[in-house]
Amino acid sequence: MFENRRYDVNRRSVLKSTAALLAGSTLASVPVQADHYDSKIHYEPELDEDNLMELSVQDHEVLGDGVRFDLGEYDGYIRLFDDDFARVSIVDRDEEEYESRGIANGREDWDAPNFSVDETADTIAIGTETITVEVKKDRFGVKFLDEEGNVVNEDYLDKGTAGYEGSKPYAYKKADVDESFYGFGEQPELTLDQRGKKLENWNTDQYGYGDTNDYVYTSVPFFVGLKETGAYGLFFDNPSHSVFHMADDPDTSEKSSNSQAEEDYYYFLADGGQLTYYFAYGPEISDVLERYTDLTGTISLPPKWAIAYHQSKWEYSPEELAEVPQRYREEEIPLDAMHFDIGYMDDYRVFTIQGAHREALHTLNEEVPELKTVAVNDPGVAVDKEADVDGDGEDEPYRPYLEGTENEYWTKNVNGDTFYGPVWPTQDVADDPTDAVWPDFSRSEVRSWWADQHNVFFDAGFDGIKNDMGEPAVFQENDKYDWTMPADNIHGTGADTMLHEEYHNMYGFDYARASREAYDIYKPDQRPFLLNRNLYAGGQRLAAIWTGDNVSEWSHLRMSIPMQLNLGLSGMAFCGHDVGGFAGRPTPELFKRWMEMGAFLPYFRNHTDTHRKADGEADVRNQHPWTFGEEAIEISKKYIELRYRLMPYLYNEFQASAETGKPIQQPLVYLYQNDPDTRDIIDQFMFGDNMMIAPVVEQGATSREVYLPEGEIWVDFWTNEVYDGDQMITVDAPIDHLPIFVRKDSIVPMREVQQYTGEKSLTTLELRTYLDDEAAYSFYEDDGETRAFEDGEYNVTHFSVSENNDGVVTFERELDVQNYDSELSSYLLNLDLSEAPRKVQAASNKYEEVNADDVEDIPESFAYDADADAVLVHIPADEERDVKLFFNGGDNPGRGR
User: What separation in angstroms does the CA of 273 have from each of 129, 288, 503?
Assistant: First the structure.
């Protein structure tokens, strides 16, 4: 066992040395072509359970931030990052503990908490103010306990200790019978709770994936466990192919129904690398995510246009690219961005723009100047010395290939020669198909060089970058993994050399790092918008993510919800999918339902496949609202407009996520983890903290059941009808209706409709208030475009609305931070009360009672709006006094309860 482990380490060292010596030669490989749509991944790491380790503590040493354990040939470490956050590692003697690129704030960035170390004959206990880490000596095992001594997480030792089976790191953990598991990044599952599942991480281009695929485009080996003692998180920081068996063993399924349920277990392993994992204790799920994103980073606050509505299609013609956004304007359907897919390139040569597409881009910039444009990019560089870079019909030196070759920037094969393979530039659209080469993004100088190439996009007028194919996708079969480069390809130089098998899941992450650097070079004052299909844990701080090539089927509409909810519970809050489905074509009903739900995704883009695949070129396949008739136009307009009206609320949710790491699209269990009925709800979600969305995801349905979590009073967004929580209700849901509910004692900031973000200044902020006792909201505001907020140029205004025992409602405003020159001139308080106030006044200044239609135009006025069943009050933004609403009698009859 120990000899095998040593052999693998030595073998890696030999490969590194060989690669360094051979780097620079140009022997080309000749791969076998794979069929994209039938490609199968045919390898999965597994453990030999008869060959697991039996480690024991022979000695220990107290360190400044934890304890080192002498485990014989291995060292074990418990490092304390904070009083509720620890790292566990088992490494070769004197080997350094590993931190991947996914770590934003590593061990050196934390101040270790105060802790104690107590030893008994059997255990060594490391205690902080919040947790105790108890280590068993005779059979090395780690147990985490809360302040009251309850076991939060512990090793399962019946099969051996944690360690290495051959070169595969692993750990076994006990699973309580009531324990649920969330997160795991991007997993194509129809469940939210992943207990009983086998979940894998190997970034793979999976066109038309389904819930039977083991893995798709992105790898995040992190999960949240939820049990009676609260929530905890485990992050297995290992970019190799990893597998999580979450109590999926048949034996554990049998145990879960009998008295031996406490012996259930789960385990995780990887195909190589080091056993290093992080433990974060909640007890709230939000606490766990905050700790995890303290470590790996949060999303960056995007520009507002990035969270508005985007339109895209693979193989838009240049004419369509220019005409489609103008049709949106004619239909008065808001739109902020158009995407240029790979067809804009000169025969798929990256960093080139065909003449006709360049003209389309110019037309958009001239005729729809407010529209933002996004260029897709790929990492596969054509082996071509010349290309039509400028789209003028004249070939010139193809800088990306020539410079990359001259500087030896390409990924190498096992012999140390440049790796060549087929990808988009090899397709038959070119007269002379050629191979491609792939930048070695593991090297900082290669990332900087790649970033420098982006002047082609930014000089032409593009605003955003969509990074595709970064798994990396290669159109070929291999011995272990199809549709990517060989596992024994080589990345890095010198001591940093590694096999592709080790680096594979990090390739898209570093691809995003390179593109992010481009903004620092060419748009240093603008906030980046990057959209990646492939990332690793921590990638949320670099790019938004979409879930790849989904399918226009009802099952994919349903599956998209738990997929994205678990991405959000994995730190990747800025996530979305192809609304309407990418592969195939939605029915009109499916499209309408998808657009309704899409308006409440963190990233909202309508994107579809080329029409050439199925319908033939004569039947042009588009996926616009007008494609599906007048009703689809009306429904799309209704919900896209609602998203734009909710932009102040949504933008504040993004800002909060950038601060704390919380999801924007939240599973109900995130806010209501003590309500057992929320544990696996997959067809409802919270849109931010205050709004609950219950989309229709079943074909032909015109009503649906909605669960209202306990501990809240809920209000129908459309009717203001009030419901108690902790019940299931049935609501009507005709084709144009999406059920939406809002929590009582919450405020939802809104604004007027715009055709694009920035069309109109925000002068009147509507404060949609659902009052039971007291509602509060801290409203964040900045310019929504530049990085000036990083230097403190923003405002935070705290609003509260409360009611006393006499039925007097008081509006208060407090200016917390005021460093941004806001154009806000007034607030429109919109209260869900079914009675007109007797009077409204600020100190002795009485407000004027007017018609509901006139309130917005008359400062210091109020009205009861019978149609909306709400009270409206127009409050000047510079009003420093409390505004009070007086109603007849004491208890307000407008509660609706």
Answer: 33, 25, 10
Of the residues 346, 549, 553, 803, only one is catalytic, namely 549
pTM for this entry:
0.94
What confidence category does residue 13 fall into, taking pLDDT thresholds of 50, 70 and 90?
Answer: very low
Q: Which residues contact 255 (CB under 8 A, 6 or more apart)?
A: 261, 263, 264
Q: Hey, what's the torsion of the CAs at 552, 555, 556, 558, to 10 degrees? A: 130
pLDDT band of residue 84 (cuts 50, 70, 90) is very high
Dihedral angle sign, alpha carbons of residues 60, 66, 71, 74: negative
Backbone angles phi, psi at 889, to 5 degrees: 75, -170
Distance CA 530, CA 132 (A): 41
Single-letter code of the amino acid located at 805 = N
b (16+ CB within 10 A) / e for 540-568: bbbbbbbbbbbbbbbebbbbbbbbbbbbb
Q: Please report the DSSP string for 336-380 in residue order.
A: -EEEE-GGGSBTTBTT---HHHHHHHHHHHHHSTT-EEEEEE-SP
Determine the average pLDDT of the residues in 703-730. Answer: 97
pLDDT in tens, 603-661: 999 999 987 765 544 566 799 999 999 999 999 999 999 999 999 999 999 999 999 99
The reply to whether 732 belongs to the active site is no
**Can you say whether residue 411 is alpha, beta or left, with left for phi > 0 and alpha for psi between -120 and 50 degrees?**
beta
Q: Residue 277's pLDDT is what?
A: 98
Burial zone of 342 (CB within 10 Å; 0-12 exposed, 13-18 middle, 19+ buried): middle
Q: Is 319 one of the catalytic residues?
A: no
Catalytic residue, chosen from 287, 347, 471, 578, is 471
User: Which residue reads 């105060």 in tokens?
Assistant: 114
**Burial group, residue 286, by CB count within 10 angstroms (0-12, 13-18, 19+):** middle
Answer yes or no: 94 catalytic: no
List the catalytic residue out of 468, 609, 675, 781.
468
Residue 17 CB partners (closer than 8 Å, separation 6+): none
Q: Over range 3-19, report the average pLDDT.
A: 30
- Token look-up 């008994």 returns 120
The answer to whether 568 and 601 have CB atoms below 8 angstroms apart is no
Q: Kindly state the greatest CA–CA separation across the chain.
A: 89
